[in-house]
Amino acid sequence: MSAIRMLALAGLFSLSFAACSAARDNAAAEPVTEAVEVPIGGGIALAGTLHLPAPSDAPAPAVILYPGSQASTNLPGLAAHLAAQGIVALDLNKRGVAGSGGHWRDETIERQADDVLAAFAFLQTRAEVDAARIGVAGHSQGGWVAQLAAARAPELGFVILLAGPTQTVRDQILTDERYHLTGWGVPAPEVDARIAMFGDFMEAALTNPAVCSPQGGHYLCGLFRYDPADALGAIQVPVLALYGENDPMTPPELNEAELRAALAHLPEGAVTTRVFEGANHVFWASQTGLRDEYPQLTREYVPGFLDTISNWVLER
């Protein structure tokens, strides 16, 4: 083999080796996921997935993602998006969901807030996380949980409310029912009568020891009693609140105004709100936002939803 040919082959080998090394480096720089368990006391642990950004010399901000009511999980794709933007995201499963111990029927808003604070303590132990920049994002009922967690732990860095209500639980349920009845074309007098009857039923349940006993509907009774006013008044950190224009459960025209009034004690610029045109309760594009419309919808977030969250976190 000639010297020239040997040199050419050596050059090709060098280029190939460099390309393979670059490919390995790029692969290593991609976000990764890690299954984790967060101990919350009583021998119970919550399962979750930790989404870690590409490795960096500097610790990253982090967000605890907490879901809505009953056995729901977090908004899909949100944690992966945050990690891709350089933000650690803990996709936390509530009690009794997707491998977590306990059961969501035994939860109260107060206990769920304690679970979020356990996740906060867990993230503070992670070398990848900047302990001074850990916040919580709650969707729907998780918004009440996030508010209370921030009120109890002012060292949390920020709060993100994704269709998070500011009404009492009882009033929020009645608001949702009113919007649906109206959207389905029920005449206004009948809507008023049904809402009044439903409200009376809830009040009767709250005063019935048999209903609210551990053998009865104690889970719902505890929720119906919850009022977020004190928690909102105690928040001392920046808040991002996002709403869908067509959301009957957390209508922005009601909740945005109530939120700003409740957080009037915060410095100017500490509260950021945005209403997404045409979005429903889970921030998909919709026509009405009513629950019977969901099967016909494209399961994609409205433009700007994900970027609004990540950009706001990185600006903190």
Describe this protein's structure:
By secondary structure, the chain is α/β, with parallel strands linked by helices. Strands 1-2-4-3-5-6-7-8 form an 8-stranded mixed sheet, sandwiched between helices. It is globular, with a radius of gyration of 24 Å. It starts with a helix and ends with a helix. The N terminus is likely disordered.
Set out the fold topology.
Elements: H1 3-28, E1 32-41, E2 44-52, E3 60-66, H2 78-84, E4 88-92, H3 109-124, E5 129-139, H4 141-152, E6 159-162, H5 169-183, H6 188-206, H7 218-224, H8 229-234, E7 239-244, H9 252-262, E8 271-276, H10 305-315
Parallel strand pairs: 3-4, 3-5, 5-6, 6-7, 7-8
Antiparallel strand pairs: 1-2, 2-4
Helix pairs in contact: 3-4, 5-6
Task: Provide a compact summary of the structure.
The protein has 316 residues and is an alpha/beta fold. 41% of the residues lie in helices and 18% in strands. The protein folds into two domains: 228 residues, Rossmann fold (3-Layer(aba) Sandwich), CATH 3.40.50; 57 residues, no CATH class.
Features of this protein?
316 residues, alpha/beta, Rossmann fold, 2 domains, eight-stranded mixed beta sheet, 10 helices, 8 strands, 18% strand, globular, disordered N terminus
Global geometry: globular
Strand ordering within the main sheet: 1-2-4-3-5-6-7-8
Radius of gyration: 24 Å
Kindly identify the CATH topology of the largest domain: Rossmann fold
CATH classification, class level of the largest domain: Alpha Beta
The CATH architecture of the largest domain is 3-Layer(aba) Sandwich
Fraction of helical residues:
40-55%
Number of strands: 8
Derived structural class = alpha/beta
User: How many helices?
Assistant: 10
The end-to-end distance, rounded to whole angstroms, is: 63 Å
The major pleated sheet works out as: 8 strands, mixed
Q: How much β-strand is present in the residues?
A: 15-25%
Order of helices and strands: HEEEHEHEHEHHHHEHEH
Looking at CATH, the homologous superfamily of the largest domain is Alpha/Beta hydrolase fold, catalytic domain
Q: Give unreliable regions as ranges.
A: 1-28
How would you state the average pLDDT, rounded?
A: 89
**Count of all domains:** 2
